[in-house]
Amino acid sequence: MLANHILTSEQFTTIHNAKSDIYKLQRDLGEILAPKYSEQIESIIARLEHALVDVYKAEEAEEQKRYELYQKIAEDNHLDNSEWAVLGVSDFSEVPYPKATKLQINGVIHDIKEGSSWLDLWIAVNKISKMNVANDEFVNSFVSIIGIRADRQLNIIVDVCNFWRF
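Now predict its structure.
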């Protein structure tokens, strides 16, 4: 047995999902499961949770760092009408859709500058959000749609967050 083995993200996910599956199985079996087996399953789940506690803590700390980064970027850029939730983004200077010139939100197409960074996209969504409603909106994903028109190629980024309002 390796004493200082570090789990990969995939290994952690596999173990975490197996733990969840065991818990779900125990819950689904409910009353037909003999108490001694239920206790054994609870013991297995507890051991798995104990083994993963440091990973859970590290994941929570990483999530908190990400949230603080997003809050700082929002404050620095006066993005007070939207909240970033595209969790894989940490470099807001990155240009995810270099040829895109349009941003579609709720079926309405808006012009954006070609070569917009993640931050430019967030600023655009925030600005559009302010024009449309006073509610906060979550920006949680984008997809690129490339259409061909007779006169030119049309690059559109669609914000697919369906705007959760609160």
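The first helix runs from residue 9 to 29.
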